[in-house]
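As a warm-up, study this chain.
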Amino acid sequence: MKGFQWKLAGHESPAAGKTLLMGCNGPVLNFYNYVMVLDKSSLLMWHQRWTNNVPTEDVRLFVIHPNRLASLPDDLDSLYRTMNEHQTPFTIGGAPTAEVRLPTGDCTGDVSAEFPEQTRSLEELLILCRCSGIPRTPECGSETALLVARPRESSYRLYPQDWFNFGGLDYGYQWITRVARNPLTGQVHGEGIRIAPFILDNSLRRLRK
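Now compare it with the structure written out below.
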């Protein structure tokens, strides 16, 4: 985004795991936030808090205009410590322009949602999340899902990642980190930590053979 650049806050505690958007003003982002540029003046950011609650936490999407934010305090280390203490996903000098919460307890079909006006230009948004609608059994070691949001259609759907959840993996050591749709083939590709790159089949629940 013009006039701004990303910078790691630092590698040592309390700054570790945080990223600064540097400009005249800028948000502080903690781990487990995803960010994309919406247009020349706004960002879309999302996350899902990791808890043991049932149902699982909502995925929260925020529209942010960096140029409208106030400067953060000079004592960033104190701010970082407060974020760590309260497990705050991010801090900005002001309020988001818009927000929407997407519940993650139902993976049986399409769910209606009113997306912010600024996101209506997006045909699709792919989001990794946890879904408590996935039945936990001895064979199912994870509740990972792919949330396919369609802001233009005011709907989204959760697709359990059966290949991963029933894969017998070490779920504290291996996980999916990102996905994207190939504009040429229409297939969804993904990568993760200590797992091989993958391509989903048309069900969006299993791997392509």
